[in-house]
Amino acid sequence: MIVNFNKISFQQKLFSWYEINKRDLPWRHTNDPYKIWLSEIILQQTRVNQGLPYYERFVEKYPDIKSLAIASEDEVLRLWQGLGYYSRARNMLATAKNIFYNLKEFPNNYKEILKLKGIGTYTAAAIASFAFKEKVAVLDGNVYRVLSRIFGIQTDISLPAAKKEFTELANSIISVENPDIFNQAMMELGAILCTPMPQCLLCPFNDICYAFLNEKQNELPVKNKKIKIKELFFHYYIFEYQGKIGMKQRINKDIWQGLFDFYLIETDSLMATYLKLEDEILNKIIISSEKKSDLQIYSHQLTHRKIFAQFVHVILNSENIKYIEESCNVKFYSPVEVDNLPKPTLIVKYLIENTHNLYL
Residue 358, exposed/middle/buried by CB under 10 A (0-12, 13-18, 19+)? Predict the structure, then answer.
């Protein structure tokens, strides 16, 4: 702890700064745990300016737990489309069903909220403090940054021990009377001023901040663990028959589970324009059909993966449509139906850029 650190003075400075500088966000005007939960799930791995329109659309379509609980997974995934990390949406739907059908009401304390599917320590603390004013500190990337710089904490935040150290510190300085405002203010300080490139001269704590006083802003927080990016190479075959497009729902438990894409072959490169498929009949169909190949390589960045994809548009005839449906496990959809299906961002990008080439 900083020498001569005064907790009350710290809180007062923080609250004063927050009152003047806070952003006007809709979830800050409610203590409804459902809406707070919804906002926190959307904002996981998502910037506020990107997540805000999604929050507004979700609240409009699903204004309460019941309306979300009775929704279909396809509807929820379609509304979520573009946010990524689709397991968040699937977990959110499962939790809504659990609350509505089993628990009957949203849990009102940290320990019980933490038991819900898809809710970790940060989200549970946020809901408990914002909705129920429980004295439990939140700890996200912004708060890690603020605490490590002000208090000069050198512990690598990628290590398990760091979470315990930072949580204990945050809980020792949180306001008893206004834990909700304290948590919001700490996150806002990290989002607006104490950013990776901080605006230290505007910070209310530059008189006590270890990083500022020792010119170590670029060194804190310490994070040595590097994300390893794996490259994936996708070859998509877009089967078209009488103006309809063949799409396949992903049923494997991966990041795109429940979404729809085209018939896919994954390889270790993108060297070949057309692949020689192991299925001999399918290979003959591909070779003998009219093809429109898009030689452009589409890339899509995920947290731990980078996808490179090529697309081959194959126009089928009545002689081979049944085989394609059965062997490739695809179903054919009209343009309107395709638009309404939940799809990965990569597929949406391709469709937007190539609508003029499809359905001709």
Answer: middle
Q: Report d(CA 165, CA 157) in Å as an integer.
A: 10
Strand ranges (E), 178-289:
230-241, 244-249, 260-261, 263-267
**250-277, pLDDT tens digit by residue?**
988 888 999 999 999 888 887 755 566 7
pTM of the model: 0.85
- Pick from 31, 118, 106, 48: which is nearest to 76 by CA? 118
Q: Domain 7-213: give its CATH superfamily.
A: Hypothetical protein; domain 2 (1.10.340.30)
- Residues that are catalytic: 40
Query: Residue 301 CB: number of other CB atoms within 10 A?
Result: 10
The pLDDT value given to residue 254: 83
**Where in the chain do CATH 3.90.79.10 domains reside?**
230-357
Q: Which residue has the tokens 């070949």?
A: 272
pLDDT-above-70 percentage for the chain: 95
Cβ contacts of residue 51 below 8 Å, gap of 6+?
39, 42, 43, 83
Topology of the domain comprising 230-357: Nucleoside Triphosphate Pyrophosphohydrolase (3.90.79)
Q: Is 351 helix (H, G, I), strand (E, B) or coil?
A: helix
pLDDT of residue 273: 54
Q: What angle do CA 96, 102, 108 make, to 5 degrees?
A: 70
